Amino acid sequence: MTQGNGNRSRLLLVILIVTALFFITLDLRGVSLTKGSRSVSQTLLAPVQKTVFTVFSPIGRFFSDVANFGNTQSKINELKAENSALKSKLVKDSDIAAQFKQLKGVLDLAGRGQYKVVAARVIGRGTASSFSQTITIDVGSANGVSNNMTVTSEHGLVGLIKNVTRSSSIVLLMNDPTFKVGVKITRSQSVGVLSGQGNDVYTLVLLDPAGMIRVGDSLVTNGSEHNRPFVPGVPIGEVISVVNSTTSLTQTATVKAYTNLNDLGVVSVVIDAPTTAPTAPIVPTPIPTVTVLVTPSPIPTISDSPAPGDLKPAPVITSNKKR
Amino acid sequence: MSPIRILSTILFLFLVFAVQESAVSLIHFPVTGFSLYVAVAISLIASEDHNGSLVMGFLAGIVLDLSPTSDSPFGQWALVFTLIGYLFAVNKESIADFTSSPITFVLLVAVGSAAAFALDLGFGAMLGEENGSIKHDLIISVGNGMWSIIFAPIFLPGLRYARRFLLTSKER
Question: Which of residues 46-85 of B touch A (CB under 8 A)?
């Protein structure tokens, strides 16, 4: 570089760096100009993404299938074996299945059935130019979607709405490193915090020092205040390993999610939650119970021990006892 | 750079950005995703002269900052690419040697892509962003470089052709 050229280059460098730092400062201070520019680009890109998705999604799926070919084949074999085992079990357990059906109906009524959802197609995945894990869906504020709404798939939690335009929304996936959700272990009702790690495994940290995590424990969302950002009871995944550390006050575990975030086609956004808090304890209907009080007779001596039939009949009291 | 050149470059970068956001991002690459945009931006920066590298870097960063899925503050990528442009500018003589051979140019693009991600990660850490574990970030940075090695030979001839259109008659 010549002297004059070098000075001009340095001056230009300083100007550009100062400009960049100026933008960063504006953004960190929440100036709407910089936030708005991203909304504008999302609004402009959404129609392009929808069109490209329609045309190119078979190509994307082809690459995905090629990448997961080995896994898919072994998964099919595994599922076939599991299916035949379940079929034989189904015949044996027809009586239990009838009871389970009733129970499931109650749980469904109390849980999922109370939410109003909007179905959405995934029209884009987060750019590879970012460390965040996101998808773009084809519903927006025109469909009643707003920020911090829960997004689910057929298997469970997907993430939450991060940014909304009129016709599209960006969903922060649950495997994003910044993603954290309060969860509940269905077996013990212990609560904890699940964090994304950027891949398909998650870290669960239990909040209760006395709580225990077991491999195979299922996790559901614990729910947030006013159901934002998370509605309660959405399945998340199951514990695949437990980390016992002497340096930690509470247990931690590794969790595998029910939802495969690499293969999302259709998701649903929970746009309305029930008016009654689903997290409130369920009070069962009072059931009449019978209490039998037996008054023992004086302890008999060995010589004159009466026969069992000689005991006096006890009074029977019937009452309605609430649990 | 003339104003017309700056405008046409921004339009071209936005076109690549749209392709990246709407088409390339749909493909689920093994290991990690591939950023076509970053690879193209590095290639363009490497092809410019001293001041051109700086301006091209800044423009490329500003367009990438428009990404609606980005978590980093607006201007961070502009800062990253400006510094990348500066590195290219001060090492112009040796960079020119690299760009003269197709194989070394591909390697330069791959290393540049990985370096851009590493710089972004560094600035993100300084600004208090959460970007996950070091292993995860390393996989993304190195993985992008790896995909750049594979795909750069495919897009570089087309990019050189497109760049000739972006140059003004005087620059040609």
Answer: 50-51, 54-55, 57-58, 61, 64-79, 82-83
How far apart CA B40 and CA B28 sit, in angstroms, is 20
Q: What residues are paired with A202 via a beta bridge?
A: A196, A255
Q: Do A27 and B73 touch (CB under 8 A)?
A: yes
Q: Which of A21, A27, A129 sits opposite B35 (nearest CB)?
A: A129
* CA dihedral sign, ordered A39, A43, A44, A49: positive
Q: How far apart are CA B147 and CA B77, in angstroms?
A: 20
CA distance A172 to A167: 17
B67 with A16: Cβ contact below 8 A = no
Nearest residue of B to residue A126, measured between CA atoms:
B69
Interface of B with A in 136-155 (CB under 8 A): 136-137, 140, 144
The two tokens of residue B57 are 């870097």
What domain range is B116 assigned to?
3-166
Q: Which residues of B touch A197 (CB under 8 A)?
A: 132-133, 136
* A62-89 mean pLDDT: 73
The pLDDT tens digits of the residues spanning B24-82 come to: 877 777 777 788 899 999 998 888 887 888 898 999 999 988 888 777 888 899 999 99
CB contact at 8 A, A255 and A203: yes
Q: Which residues of A touch B34 (CB under 8 A)?
A: 128
The alpha carbon of residue B169 is apart from the nearest alpha carbon of chain A, in Å, by 23
DSSP class of residue B23 equals: T
- Classify residue B172: in a domain, yes or no: no
Domain-embedded: residue B138: yes
CATH number at residue B95: 1.10.1760
- Judged by CB atoms closer than 8 Å, whether chains meet at A131 and B30 is answered as no
User: Is residue B67, in this structure, part of any structural domain at all?
Assistant: yes
Residue pointed to by tokens 């259709």: A266
For residue A225, the tally of other CB atoms under 10 A from its CB is 9
Q: Let me know if residue B9 belongs to a domain.
A: yes
List, for residues A130-176, the tens digit of each pLDDT value. 777 888 888 888 888 998 998 888 778 889 998 888 888 999 999 88
Structure tokens at B74: 């607006």
Q: Sorting pLDDT into bands at 50, 70 and 90, what band is A11?
A: confident
Give contacts of B131 with chain A, Cβ < 8 Å.
Answer: 131, 177
Cβ of B18 and A48 within 8 Å?
A: yes
Domain count, chain B: 1
**Which residue in A164, A132, A137, A142 sits closest to A35, CA to CA?**
A164
The closest of B169, B27, B11, B33 to A132, measured between CA atoms, is B33
Closest by Cβ to A132, choosing from B30, B71, B86: B71
